[in-house]
Amino acid sequence: MLKFPAALRSRNALVSVLGIVLIAGTTTVVAQTTPLEPVQWDKRRLEQLDRNVRRLERAVTQRNAAGDPVIIEPDPEVVALQGRVGLMDRRLADMEATVQRVNGDIERLTFQLDEAGRDNTALANRLRDAEGRLRVIEAAAAREAELNSPIPTTSPTGDAVRDLTAAARLAATDPQRGERALQTVILAWPDTPQAREASSRLGDLRVAAGDPAGAVSAYATALQGWPTAPWAPSTTLELANALNATDRKTQACTALTEFTRRYAETSSPAVRTRATEARNRIGCPAAAPAAPPARRGG
Known about the structure:
The protein has 298 residues and is mainly alpha-helical. The protein contains 10 helices and 2 strands, in the order E-H-H-E-H-H-H-H-H-H-H-H.
């Protein structure tokens, strides 16, 4: 309980005490009744309030002077309400601390999540790169196994012309696989015009690959019996060049002599020009003029 000291004499102090009493009483009434309409404070009401305050001031002064101090007991409901407000303040402070801690955890987790996302992206890129390299390695291994496997000896299409066409088309885009396809034609269709032409094309592939010795073998196989196919004159010139590239000048000149004797007359001017250039480059003796075609009797 609160006792007013004897020094409490001023009107302001009394107004404060009256305000506390009125607030406590008003709080209790408001909790139990419905809200009242606001008071219209005009001059008359203010003067009446002033008179009441003066009377209350005189009464308090008289009681204090008589040794009977005024004791103001707080309203239990106000005390309880103050306790609940204090508890709510503490809980609110706890909640604010919890929210701050949760916000910190969220920021930390967000940062970690961003880092994990970046790590996942980097790992995904590395995984794609590894998969790409693995596919390249697997394709290279499969290709190497195919190129090192035995040459098939059976026709893939059952027709020599189609086999040769497919092999020539493949050789134009993939020389290594094309070489195997040409060898398949040679093995599947021996002693056929298609096998001879396949050998000629095989010689061209070996020249392009920098293997003049292998080209000589392929060209020689193609020209066995000196065929009269359209490709034979050019193949003879290529044979001479390959022989000269392997330091066999005499045999190269012999091949050019055979060209003059067998193909010069029926070859195009461009092919004959190539033969002359090859003879001069290799240093072969001048070739004897081709014999004129035999005249038919009649």
